[in-house]
Amino acid sequence: MPNWGDRLLVAGGAPVTVPRDPARDAARDELLNAEYHKHDPSVLQRITDWISEHISGALNSISGDGTTGTTGLILFLVVAVLIAAALWWRLGAPGRAARTVQDVYGAEGPRGADQYRADAAAHAAAGRWTEAVREQMRALVRSLEERTLLDTRPGRTADEAAAEAGRALPEHAAALAAAARTFDDIAYGERTADQAAYRLLHELDRTLERTRPVLAPDPAPVPAPGGAA
């Protein structure tokens, strides 16, 4: 499009170029400098101000009866929803509290692996998948302790048990770590348990029962001082 600020038409119709005002251009460029706008309100601030103005208008229009009061109340509710949506968009979902990882056996302490397995199976049959996952993981860890692949140590978490067992059963280290993560996520409320999670732990427990640990090689004999007799 032609810039009519730069060109004018004389009476005869011929265009005449008018020089731009250098001072005006310099002032405009200076005002566009970002330094002058760094303290401008953000988009969220402008939205919040707009919503606040409408809330004030809605409250002022509420008279308690009649059409004006009803309309004002509806407007107030709409604006309240808008401000809630704006805050949700800005802040996101409420963050979870920091998770405290506890002893895999909980406060009641360890029981027999077969007892845990029986409880897990009963929970699974009733569709109580959270309880089934919890008891099955306890059965898995307790079984490793009963086989002396893990020492019986109070306060051990599922992650610690998986890491220690993975050193004795290196081919299953990744599966043990995944089982511990599944247990933690479900036991502490961050993930919904389901049949697949229970089956994962159940099958791993059965697999580990058939697995022999990797024995550490015997240390090389230390030669006697002075060589052979």
The best one-word shape is elongated
The neighbouring-strand order within the major sheet is 1-2
Q: Main beta sheet: strand number and arrangement? A: 2 strands, antiparallel
| Fraction of residues in H or I helices | 55-70%
Q: What is the terminal separation in angstroms?
A: 107 Å
Q: Give the radius of gyration.
A: 36 Å
SSE layout:
Elements: E1 7-9, E2 15-17, H1 22-31, H2 43-61, H3 66-91, H4 113-125, H5 129-146, H6 158-168, H7 173-187, H8 195-209
Antiparallel strand pairs: 1-2
Helix pairs in contact: 2-3, 4-5, 5-6, 5-7, 5-8, 6-7, 7-8
Structure description:
This protein has a two-stranded antiparallel ribbon. The relative contact order is 0.07. Among the domains are: 43-91; 113-209, no CATH class. With 229 residues, the chain is an all-alpha fold. Mean pLDDT is 75; it is low at 93-99. The termini are far apart. Strand 1 (7-9) and strand 2 form a beta hairpin. It has helices spanning 22-31, 43-61, 66-91, 113-125, 129-146, 158-168, 173-187, 195-209; strands spanning 7-9, 15-17.
